[in-house]
Amino acid sequence: MKNLYKIDKLSVFGVFLISIFMTVIEMIVSDPNVASMPQMGKWLKLLIYVVGALISFGIGYWLYTLLLRNNDNYKNKLIINMAIGLTIVALLITVIYLIAGKTDIWVNGIAGFIGFGTLAGLNWKFLDVPQSDKIKISVLTGIWFVLSLF
Length: 150
Known about the structure:
mainly alpha
């Protein structure tokens, strides 16, 4: 895992794009109305999903950096941790939707618990910040998990 944190900025951007791609796939797969839309509606829906995924990742990253503003050598690790956690959530929800054919609060709860738990664990173990900052970002991760249930 430590080798993953020593990658260059272009590779970090690639990990970020994989996370956004998985989130958009999860949104498209779990929306039953996409199949019956006209072509222009599908493209607009795709655009809305991409913008929504970018905004949610950006807001989460901004809140984390707001809490960790006294430290400097965590940004690549934080992006990679967020990408891993959010990709796990999107992948689990996609697989469950393809198997069961529906999503509800239980699906979001189980997938979110695993994904956001992974995010919190990676942040706790690999970020080089004081313990008080680790507690802050763990609480923020818990709040993000609760908000993702709805």
